[in-house]
Design a protein that fits this description.
- Keywords: Membrane, Mitochondrion, Mitochondrion inner membrane, Protein transport, Transit peptide, Translocation, Transmembrane, Transmembrane helix, Transport.
- The chain crosses the membrane at residues 68-86.
- The structure is a single chain.
- By secondary structure, the protein is α+β, with helices and mostly antiparallel strands.
- It has a domain at 95-252: Mitochondrial import inner membrane translocase subunit Tim21 (Nuclear Transport Factor 2, Chain: A), CATH 3.10.450.320.
- The protein contains six helices and six strands, in the order αααααββββββα.
- Strands 1, 2, 3, 4, 5 and 6 form a six-stranded antiparallel β-sheet that branches.
């Protein structure tokens, strides 16, 4: 019996030596047999973990992209707000800055103080909305025939206490210098009207009283004289053109003012 077992062992050893892969396959098969079989629930859980890992990576990428998009949107909005504040409040040609500066010059004018009293307020275009108290200031930025940047503006003034039934329509013009890029006033004028205090704002009866030239530069006055001379030479009629108050300023009465 012992001799038979010894012979079988020798035969197996010889086969393993002749075929070394047999030992490897035998050991793997033996190990697989030793491992317990997974249940269907365990196999399903393993697949879920694998899927969750992939979806988690996708969610992280999507979250990062969303954060970048949000930060970019906030920065763009912040830049737009800063540009708007600079363009309106700080820049020389900003509508708010020009409005405040010109209103100070108008208040300091002796003729205006005599006509409207010592308390003058300014406001924008007429509106019938009870909620909209901040009225827009009509203005236009454009390039003239000489290639210079121009800014025109129109707003209204009156006595803050409304004790004096008068309304002033302010018209002003600025030009940007090509050499210094500074903005200089060409003129600030105020057309004064007497109004019916019983009428609604924007619908009251107006009667022209006169014009106050708060500021007129020599250069602009020269341009006006040249323009008048050109009109006389070309025999233009004054019918239907400009105002008829007799002021030399009427020949350059802008046609693009918003009523």
């Amino acid at each position: 019996m012992n001799r038979a077992l010894l012979g079988i062992n020798r035969l197996l050893v010889n086969r393993i030596v002749a075929k070394p892969d047999l030992l490897h396959k035998t050991s793997i098969h033996y190990c697989m047999r030793l491992q317990p079989k997974r249940t269907k629930q365990q196999q399903h859980t393993r697949r879920l973990y694998s899927t969750d890992g992939q979806s988690g990576g996708i969610r992280r990428v999507a979250g990062t992209a969303g954060n970048v998009l949000l930060i970019g949107s906030v920065m763009t909005l912040f830049g737009y707000i800063m540009y708007t504040l600079y363009d309106n409040l700080i820049a020389e040609h900003g509508p708010t800055r020009v409005y405040n500066e010109s209103l100070d010059l108008i208040r300091a004018n002796p003729e205006i103080r005599q006509l409207f009293g010592g308390s003058v307020i300014g406001f924008g275009e007429p509106t019938h909305s009870q909620r909209q108290r901040q009225r827009s200031i009509a203005h236009k930025l454009f390039e003239d025939e000489q290639g210079q940047q121009r800014l025109t503006m129109q707003y209204y003034i009156r006595d803050s206490k409304k004790a004096i039934p008068r309304l002033g329509i302010v018209k002003l013009d600025l030009t940007q210098s090509k050499g210094t890029s500074a903005w200089d006033y060409n003129y600030i004028i105020v057309d004064v009207y007497s109004i019916d205090s019983a009428g609604d704002y924007g619908q009251e009866t107006r009667e022209f009283v006169g014009r106050v030239e708060v500021l007129v530069t020599d250069e602009f006055a020269k341009q006006v004289r040249e323009f008048q001379k050109k009109r006389r030479n070309e025999r233009f009629t004054r019918a239907g053109k400009g105002s008829t108050d007799g002021s030399w300023f009427s020949v350059l009465n802008p046609t693009n003012w918003r009523k």
